Structure formats: C-alpha cells, structure tokens
Amino acid sequence: MKDIYISGFADEISSSFDEQLKTVRELGMQYISLRSADKKGIADFTVEEVKTDLLPRLQAAGVGVSSLGSPIGKVKIDDEEGFEKQCAQLETLCEIAKVLNCKYIRMFSFFMPEGKDPADYRDAVIEKLRKFIAIAEKHDVILMHENEKDIYGDVLSRCVDLMQTLNSAHFKSAFDFANFVQCGEDTAKCWDALRPYIVYIHIKDAVSTDKENVLCGTGEGKIPELLHKAIVEEGYTGFLTLEPHLVLFDSLQSLETTDAKNIIRENKYKNGAEGYAAQYHALCDILAKFYRNRKKEKIQMEKTEGKIRYGLIGIGAQGGSYARFLTNAPAPFPGMVCAPCPDNCALGALCDIDPEKEKMCKEQYPDVPFFKDWKDMIASGTVDAIITTVPHYLHHEISIYAMEHGMNVLCEKPAGVRSKDVQKMIACAKAHPEVSFGIMFNQRTNKLYQKIKEIVASGELGEIRRSQWMINSWWRPDSYYQQSAWRATWGGEGGGVLVNQAPHQLDLWQWICGIPVKVFSKNINGCHRNIGVENDVTMLVEFANGATGTFTTCTHDAIGTDRLEIDLDGGKIVVDNSKTAHVYHYIDKEGNPCTEDYLNEHMNMMEVAMLTSGNGAGSKLYTEETFENNDGWGFQHTTVMQNFAAHILTGSPLLAPGEDGINGVNLANSSQLSAWTGREVSNPCDPEEYAAELNKLIEAEGKFPVRE
Predict the structure, then answer these.
(1) CB 579 within 8 A of CB 630
(2) Beta-carbon neighbour count of residue 164 at 10 Å?
(3) Do residues 362 and 331 lie in contact, with contact meaning Cβ atoms separated by under 8 Å?
C-alpha cells in the first residue's frame, strides 16, 4: 500500500547480522528495526563501528533502518547510575541514527520497584523523560515510547498521561498490540486514545490466556480491524514493524523481566527465520485483503467500466503480437482470425531499445507513446500495467522494479530462469499488495485443460497413477536460433526448450497433476542443431503419492507430437494436440463406474482372452467422453489480459497468479541440475547449486557475464 512500509526486529531471525539481512531481502523487505547485530545490542555500538561495519553491510544488501530498537528507559527508576549511563548511550544512539538516516529511536519509561504504586513515581518518570527528550531535540530525532509491560507506561492511562504531559514533537508513541493485551487492556480503546501520538506500529499479537504471543491476526490484539481503521479509514502512513516473539531467540531474555518462556510457550516454528517469515506473510495477507476490498468499493462507487492500459516492454515477435491484439490490428497472414481487444484492455505505451522497432511502432501506432527506457514508461503515467516480453533474465529485474514503483505486472513465461530470482519476485509482490502480479500462462484458458483439471481435482477418477506428456511439436530450424544473439544461450536466454517453448506444458502438467518431488533427467544440448543449450529432454519424475511421470520434449521433430496421458485409478485421460480430449471411465459388467483394481480382482482369464482377441469386447471395460477446443490465434493470450485487467479493476480471481510461475521454473531447474550432475534431485532443487552450475556453463560459453 502506498506509504506503508514493512520493517521488523531482524534479530529475531538470527544473531548473525548477515543472516538477518539475507532473510529480509529474500522476503522482499527493504527495512529493519536495528536492535542487535552479531550478538551485540545497538546501544553498545560506537558510531565508528556502525560506520565501518554495519552501514556497509546494510548498503550492500539494499536495506534501510526504520528505527533503532534501543533499551533506553529499561532501567529501574531509582537507579541513578544506570540513568546517567543511558543518557550517554542516548547521545551516541542519536548520532548513530543520523549515520543510518533514521529518525526514530524506540525507548521505554523505567521499571517500577516491585510491589510499589507506579503513581508514586510519576514525577520522577516525567523528570527523567524530559532529560531524554532534551537530548533527542538537540539531535532532531524522535523518541518512540513503547507500551512495554512492567514499566511505568504499560497501561493506557499512564501512556496517555505521558503523552499529554510531555507534549513534545520529539516524544511520540510506538503502538504495541500484544503488550496491551498482556496488560489486560482493550487495544481498540488504546488505539483511539493514543492515535494523535502514534507514529509507529509494532506487529505483535498475544492472547490473555498465559499472556502468550501468537501469530499476528490470530490473537486478541484486534490487529486486522485496527490496521484497517488506521490505514484505510484514518490514513496512517509509515512503518509496520514485525516483532513476532514466536521463537525463543538469543537476545530475548535480555529484553524481558520475566522468564521468556512465559510468553513463548514453545517454539512454534523450527527457527527464527521461519517464524519471522510467517509473521511477515500473515501481515501481508491482512494488508492484501484491505486493498482488494478498497478496489471493489472504488469500482462500485464510481460505477465505471474502466480500461487497463497495458505497456509492452519489448516489441519482438510476442510483443508485436500483443500490440496487434490490443489495437484490433489485422492478423499478419491472410485468412487468419485475430483475437479482438477485450473491452477492459487498451494499449497504453510501447517500449524497445531497438531503433528499427521504434520506427516501426511510430509508423503502425502513431498515437501510442513510445519509450526507449522501460523505467521512463513506468513513471510516465501512460500505463496501468506492464507486460514483460523481454529476454528471460530481465523478467525478475523489471517486475520487481515495477511493483516497487506501484505498477501492476503481467509477466511473460517463464517467470525467470533461476528459482532464486522468481522467489524475489514473489516476495516483492507480497510486500506490495497494492499491485497485481500475474503470469502469461495462456494455456490455462484452454477449456480442455480446465475441464481435465476439474475432473482430476473432483476425485471422480481416483488418484493419479502415472502421467506422461510428449510435446515435440516445437520444431525450430537453425534460422530461428539465429534471430537474436541472446537466443539459445546459457547467458542470454538461460537455456533452450525448457525455458523457451515448454514452460506452458510444465505449468499445465503440475497445475493438473501436482508438483513432482523427485526428478531424473537426460537432456541433450544442441541435438541436431548448432546451439549449445538443451533442445532434447527426457524427464522422469516421482510425485508425493508415489505416482510416476515422464515429460519428453524437443525442437528437432518436424512432424511433432503433442499428447498428454493421465492414468488414474478409475480411468484415463488422453489429450491430443491440445485440441481433443478423451476421458475414459472404467465400468463393471453392469455398466457401473469402477476402478482398475476392481477389474483386476473380478476378471477371469477367459474374459481377458476375449478382450484381447480382437473382437471389440474391450469397449466393455470403459465409457468414453470426448471434448473439443478450437481457440483461434491470440484468443488465449487476450483472455489472460482480460482476466488480469478484471482482477485489477474488481478484484476478481486471477487465472494465473504470478506466484504460480515458480513451479515451472523449479521443475526446469531440477531437470537441468539432474542432467548436469547425472543424479536424481529433489524438486525444488537447491537453488544455489543450480545457479553455480549454470554459471559454469555461462562462463564456458564466453558470451555473457556470469549471473550473481
């Protein structure tokens, strides 16, 4: 959402600062709240240590600091020596904040003597907080008071009193849902009373039973409804900072006055990174619901049937076709029926670096803005969504940049070359629920495959036993590969048939049959072609239920075959040329549906002999249904565009969500790694091992730099 930024106390991931930064970047986050690094609290760092050690690592990771999670104010109210030490620490922390370009420092309002009435210490608290505020004013930073349990400002009345009495622009509130729950307060009342002073929000939830912390949105903190009120109704802008407290982490005990196990009964996740990611995704899901509802409300209020203006990046063969579809241009060949532009779509702008493409576009589409730089197009205001018809390695770079800049993205297949890049795209999309992210899996619009998916998912034919797809109808002569220098290269395209021609089938296979867990593959590079990448693939896979599968594809079969077979307990499905589907149901002697196991158990050898003697008795084993599909040129692509536009305008479901793109990339990566190493690999395979092996091929090819 616009002007909402997700941060977090990254030391809950790991005590290692490098691990903290690695995890937040993998999640797509751009900020942390810096509380400790490498087992050292932020208040114990010198300014010079921050400059020479922490800052370079933050810059290298592209991560900013939203706040300093300081312990200032976590000292007993009557500990004068401790207070003076903290005054000196605050001076240093203010200087550190400037080094890190951070304006917020989290702090507290002192521990009260056990068994004493906090009211008796109000004046002392006020006096000492004024001294802290004076230091903050001098350095122009903002102290954020957290409503921490067991300090003076733990309950609502005392928090409000501090804000009203001190009334400083340099002393504001950091709102913590869980802490109020653990203090027996109603978070809704707390929010309303403190709203004028809140500049920062901690995402932490809890239940009053045992005062235990839980995943955000599942406790008594009323996080979904209060965030909706804050962001949607009241216009809150700024940081939402994750503080999961779901796993016992190294520095937790130093932050709590009681046994940390009292608030974290058990590690709910296997490690800090997993718990942190769970909190992050839970928050993203909450925010996404807000935005979807806002989009629906806006459309209903305006009663408009708007159009989504697509910007095409890369006007090659595919991009050129999309330009035709979006402008109702005639088909390129006589007699060809061209898909019409959907009512909710329009061509907003074109972009390419090739001067010849620029000339062609200005001639054919004189009224459509043309850009040489895709970043300029994204910033131009001429488009509402982009389609990335560019070399595969650019998909994640362009998509991430676009989403970070508020642009909807419809990514061409494949989502990327490496799964590690696609993971970054998905993380970025989750971090930006205000934009839509889809992928051009146009084959999902084929009514045959939709029907087959429906049949398999329904369970009417039982579990899948075996599936096989032979898709050799990709004949490509050497002239095809010579069109561009990047084609059929490891460094430019990222591979051959698995990343160029077959991604649709890799997606459909898994969309219908499920995701394989093991892969063994024999891939031949340059089979009957003058190229160095794979163009002949035979893949053997295993699924979680024990079913097996094969996937065979190549680009040197001029006749070609496209045939999908799915063998199930209760029948079989066969699809030929993506146009005709035959669905077979096993039946017993009375014509009732049955399974192959039933036939096996109830058929004698005389009956088998009759079935195999060529007298046609085999038809008594099954019934047959036939389905046809005759989609014309471009209709599948425009259907995806139409669906994506409808999702942006009304929130209707995506046929091909962007996050689904990783499944095909995972399988292609696993196939390649298996072929390169000669061993069976798990799916998904190790992304770092795959990337390393790919870089060896890029380096040997010598045409493009290796990929980081």
Answers:
(1) yes
(2) 10
(3) no
For the beta sheet containing 308-313, the strands, ordered from the edge strand earlier in sequence to the opposite edge, are 370-371, 345-351, 308-313, 385-388, 408-411, 437-439
72-100 pLDDT, tens digit per residue, is 999 999 999 999 999 999 999 999 999 99
202 closest CA partner among 173, 234, 241:
241
Strand runs labelled E in 261-302: none
Our CA angle for 97, 67, 169, nearest 5°, is 80
Q: How far apart are CA 227 and CA 679, in angstroms?
A: 50
Of the candidates 179, 140, 137, the one whose C-alpha atom is nearest the C-alpha of residue 158 is 179
* 3-state secondary structure at position 449: helix
Query: What does the alpha-carbon distance between residue 549 and residue 467 come to, in Å, rounded to a whole number?
Result: 5
Q: Cβ(109)–Cβ(145) under 8 Å?
A: yes
Q: Does domain 308-443 have CATH number 3.20.20.150?
A: no
Q: How far apart are CA 480 and CA 215, in angstroms?
A: 53
CB 49, CB 82: distance < 8 Å: no
Residue 630 to residue 586: CA distance in whole angstroms: 28
CATH of domain 4-298: 3.20.20.150
Would you identify the CATH topology of the domain 450-631+659-701?
A: Dihydrodipicolinate Reductase; domain 2 (3.30.360)
Quick: pLDDT tens for 194-207. Answer: 999 999 999 999 99
> In Å, how far are 114, 185, 527, 529 from 117, measured between CA atoms?
9, 18, 83, 85
Q: Give the pTM.
A: 0.63
H or E element at residue 214? strand 213-214
Question: What are the percentages of helix, strand and coil residues in the chain, rounded to 5?
Answer: 45, 20, 35
Task: Taking residues 491-508, report their average pLDDT.
Answer: 95
For 421, the token pair is 């890049």
- Cα 271 versus chain centre, distance: 20
User: Can you give the pLDDT at residue 304?
Assistant: 36
Strand locations in 569-682, DSSP E?
571-576, 580-586, 622-628, 681-682
DSSP code, position 9: B
Q: Quickly tell me which residue has 């899996």 as its tokens.
A: 441
Query: Tell me, what's the pLDDT at 633?
Result: 56
What pLDDT does 302 receive?
38
CB 488 within 8 A of CB 530: no
Q: Do domains 308-443 and 450-631+659-701 have the same CATH topology?
A: no
User: Given pLDDT bands bounded at 50, 70 and 90, which one contains residue 300?
Assistant: very low
Domain boundaries, the chain: 4-298, 308-443, 450-631+659-701
| Phi, psi (rounded to 5 degrees) for 259 | -55, 125
